[in-house]
Write a structure and sequence with these properties.
Layout: E1 3-6, E2 12-14, E3 29-30, E4 39-41, E5 52-54, H1 66-77, E6 93-97, H2 105-108, E7 134-137, H3 141-149, H4 168-171, E8 172-174, E9 187-192, E10 199-200, E11 204-215, E12 218-228, H5 234-256, E13 263-270, E14 279-282, E15 288-293
Parallel strand pairs: 6-7, 8-9, 12-14
Antiparallel strand pairs: 1-2, 1-3, 4-5, 9-13, 10-11, 11-12, 13-15
The protein binds zinc ion.
Residues 31, 33-34, 36, 61, 65, 67-68 line the site of zinc ion (ZN).
Region (Disordered): 109-134
Biased composition (Basic and acidic residues): 109-120
């Protein structure tokens, strides 16, 4: 599972957020759908694959758990539209990004009040009739996964701070593979990561994208994403660095396994640098993520 409920705060935590923690409390996570205890896995700095949550070999979801069903829904959503005129989209989906600093997991990690509240009840999160279909999220990652997982449902509503477009299909913009264009409106931009390692310094980390000015297929001037991290904690820097590294490794494995369409895609909510068309700047770690997958564009 890519996310779970933090039983202390009752908030949804993405597995990648475990990279932000100095110490992971293995006992404090529960399934979003049924509340059963789940275990964080692969979150150590030495792990090559990205973190995830699992019920473990001895565990099981409770009957009717949404999360269990969500995986089947994603398989279906990749092939066909799952929104119906009668019921709409069948499960709650991320429809709004709110950058609320109270949600910051890194800041909570050192919070002494975390101790002693372990037995706080897990709020019920079952879908009930009439339950809102919308979910507010604190980073772009789940939004990007929804964009990838449901290519036939990209007319779902989406609210992003500073972005006028209010549907998934309009809020995302793929950088043109073979041209260096101006993108004046803020969007969630995305492009494949280049194989070269990111450049790192005290002030920023810069990632090369496989999009930009080309000649004969060869990239002459590529777009770059500069993550301006001068004021960030080490934990935040590490989390971003780790996600890029994990994605490079996953993309390599996919390539070696012959899955040529699977690529490491960098997603970032931003607008272009005023002076340099090649450059995007990201100032907030919640506004960038890297996901290895295949992105499809169905014709209607
Ligand atoms: Zn469950």
């Amino acid at each position: 599972m890519e996310s779970a409920l933090d039983s202390v705060t009752g908030e949804v935590v993405e597995a990648e957020q475990l990279w932000l923690l100095d110490q992971v409390d293995r006992e404090s996570y529960a399934c979003r759908g049924c509340g059963v205890k789940v275990l964080p896995a692969s979150y150590r700095p030495t792990n090559l694959v990205r973190p995830y949550f699992t019920v473990g070999s001895a565990g099981a979801h409770r009957p009717g758990c949404d999360v269990d069903g969500e995986q089947r829904l994603v398989q279906r959503g990749r092939q066909q539209r799952v929104t119906t005129s009668h019921d709409g989209f069948p499960v709650p989906y991320p429809s709004r990004l709110v950058l609320n600093d109270r949600r910051e997991i890194a800041d909570r990690a050192t919070d002494a009040s975390r101790e002693g509240r372990r037995d706080a009840p897990v709020p019920p999160s079952h879908s009930a009739p009439g339950m809102p279909r919308n979910r507010t999220v604190g980073t772009i990652r789940q939004i990007c996964r929804t964009f990838i997982n449901f290519p036939y449902d990209r007319d779902l509503g989406l609210s992003l701070p500073g972005v006028e477009a209010d549907k998934y299909y309009a809020a995302f913009k793929k950088l043109k593979w073979d041209d260096m264009l101006r993108y004046p409106e803020p969007r969630i931009f995305y492009a494949a990561l280049r194989w070269a390692k990111p450049v790192e310094g005290d002030a920023y980390m810069e990632i090369g994208l496989d999009a930009g000015q080309r000649e004969g297929g060869k990239l002459l001037v590529g777009h770059r994403v500069r993550i301006e991290w001068a004021g960030w904690s080490d934990a935040r820097k590490n989390a971003v660095r780790k996600e890029i590294e994990a994605a490079r490794e996953e993309a390599k494995q996919a390539f070696e396994a012959g899955q040529k369409q699977k690529k490491a895609f960098v997603f970032f909510l931003d607008d272009q640098d005023g002076a340099d068309a090649a450059l995007f700047r990201v100032l907030d770690h919640r506004l960038i993520c890297c996901i290895v997958d295949e992105i499809s564009y169905p014709k209607f």
